[in-house]
Amino acid sequence: xxxxxxxxxxxxxxxxxxxxxxxxxxxxxxxxxxxxxxxxxxxxxxxxxxxxxxxxxxxxxxxxxxxxxxxxxxxxxxxxxxxxxxxxxxxxxxxxxxxxxxxxxxxxxxxxxxxxxxxxxxxxxxxxxxxxxxxxxxxxxxxxxxxxxxxxxxxxxxxxxxxxxxxxxxxxxxxxxxxxxxxxxxxxxxxxxxxxxxxxxxxxxxxxxxxxxxxxxxxxxxxxxxxxxxxxxxxxxxxxxxxxxxxxxxxxxxxxxxxxxxxxxxxxxxxxxxxxxxxxxxxxxxxxxxxxxxxxxxxxxxxxxxxxxxxxxxxxxxxxxxxxxxxxxxxxxxxxxxxxxxxxxxxxxxxxxxxxxxxxxxxxxxxxxxxxxxxxxxxxxxxxxxxxxxxxxxxxxxxxxxxxxxxxxxxxxxxxxxxxxxxxxxxxxxxxxxxxxxxxxxxxxxxxxxxxxxxxxxxxxxxxxxxxxxxxxxxxxxxxxxxxxx
Length: 486
What we know:
Elements: H1 2-13, H2 23-47, E1 52-54, E2 58-60, H3 62-91, H4 97-116, H5 123-141, H6 147-179, H7 189-192, H8 201-219, H9 228-234, H10 237-266, H11 268-292, H12 296-317, H13 320-350, H14 361-364, H15 366-379, H16 386-400, H17 404-429, H18 444-462, H19 466-479
Antiparallel strand pairs: 1-2
């Protein structure tokens, strides 16, 4: 029943706009609903013996719970941030009250689709779930219905649909490999896993290449990333945080499920080398664009490509690197959401998003300015914030394996990106504010969304909480195949 609660809350809340007339009340109710999802996921992880199978359709293990926790943390923060953000969009004449209600319906359907992905047993249904996230979020990318947002939405749909076709082909090829050796034809992950060693290695390699390119497109792995900067920059800002913080991670989840089977069949070197190669490419491309970027949200979008590169390099290293990669999935989700919230407040206040024009954010927006100063150092990987430690774990793993060239390039690119982030953001944060702007502060709900994420950014930077550490370690056992006899 707890499994059904996790999915049913956002699904039921898609209907809430039909019954709740006042938008402020709707926003608060939406935040309470997503808090209930977060609490339910937390309770489920602490009190339920994993894995759990339900109706023959759901299969939830520690890897699933880890991703459910990441998704629920970010969606709750985004629901808090939405309360005042949507009200300001209405008062500013950007959207109508009717469209604001449509936003809350789409928000919850998008959340439902992301929560569905790590809960289903069937790899074909994982594909359906990820395609569902595209359909749900496309309307939120084009939400403002102007030329740029519509263009970004179409680009998002077309490029991700092409990618998802590759993922479907990979899934079909894997099904063929399974059908050749199994008495029962299945795409249930937990049924395929014990058979992995008996699958045809060449067929599995081909299947994984399609999967990596297909789901890698949705994950924003370069060079399949081309939809990401436009979609993230044009989406309504709370959704930009969800796109960057957790949507990309659902595609990483799908890749991980297939990589476990591939590793058991052909050995870890095949997937490891591919992960490292695409990770370095992602870092190189992100570095180049971050250096020259002039728009706040596009700047943050290219930073997401950088961190996806960091994650898959860690997965390629394995061991402590894989632990660092999973921890980085969580750290990046909360930190990047935090930064998108800050960027949204700045754009709303200044009514422009050009990094060369905006000045004096700390003076004109004291609370948001201070948050962005901390976020600037957090997202660039400075201690004592959480991203520093997950990147450190990945580097230690690489050096301990003698991958000096990869680690040297990794460090060099991170150093350049760090300089670019500090340079761009310090220019808008400090200096004299425009005289026509009056200093102001943010609404309580907006402040709470920042502080909620800041707790995780600082807490994990000091010590990984016992709950999170336990779930990551259990998820690592699944990645190694320990719990499935691989």
